[in-house]
Amino acid sequence: MKRLMLILALLMAPIFTSIVAAPAYAVQPDEVLADPVLESRARELSKVLRCPVCQSENIDESNAEVSRDLRILVRERLVAGDSDSDVLDYITDRYGEYVLFQPDASGGNLILWLAGPVMLLAGLGIGFSFLRGRRPGSEAPVEALDAAEQRRLDEILNK
After folding, report:
1. 88 lies in some domain
2. Tell me: the pLDDT tens digits for 12-59?
3. How many helices (H) and strands (E) does the chain have?
4. Domain for residue 11, yes or no?
5. How far apart are CA 11 and CA 19, in angstroms?
6. pLDDT tens digits for 75-103?
7. Closest C-alpha to 47, from 79, 72, 25
8. What is the 3-state secondary structure (H, E, C) of 25-52?
9. Which H or E element spans position 54?
């Protein structure tokens, strides 16, 4: 019984560690700013910037070289006295809106922001009208066959 419990514990260990473990940051010790206020601002900005190589990680979690360059650039701009929005504008101007996890909902992006909900509503409307048209009793009434049509049908069925 003890062996079974040990085997189960070993098998379940990766699941528990992935749930309990904190995210691993790729920030190197030489990148960390001495001022804790600036460092916390840099960490907050790093959460909203996407790694251009990894695409699904922010620059704090990514080990890619370009993410390291972006982390250093963010910290340099903060030390230079830029506000958070100035830093984001500078990086967006340099790398494009792709590096933002949530691009602005304006201009051409507005079409992309609204396309999903509009298509959902259109799909729901089409589905509703389709299902409403298929309700029982909504079909056109079927006319009875006249005598000539009935004779022809009987001949076909008798063959």
Report:
1. yes
2. 766 655 454 445 566 666 677 778 888 888 888 888 888 888 878 888
3. 6, 0
4. no
5. 14
6. 899 889 888 889 999 988 888 888 887 77
7. 25
8. CCCCHHHCCCCHHHHHHHHHHHHCEECC
9. none
Residue with tokens 């799909």: 123
Domain that holds residue 70: 21-99
- Give the total number of structural domains in the chain: 1
First to last CA, the chain: 77
The CATH number that applies at residue 44 is: 1.10.8.640
Angle between helices 84-95 and 65-79 (to 10 degrees): 140
Query: Has this prediction a pTM greater than 0.90?
Result: no
Q: Which residues contact 99 (CB under 8 A, 6 or more apart)?
A: 49, 50, 52, 70, 91, 92
* C-alpha dihedral (92, 94, 28, 52), degrees to nearest 10: 70
Token pair for 99: 């590096």
Evaluate whether residue 81 is within a structural domain: yes
According to DSSP, residue 137 is labeled: T
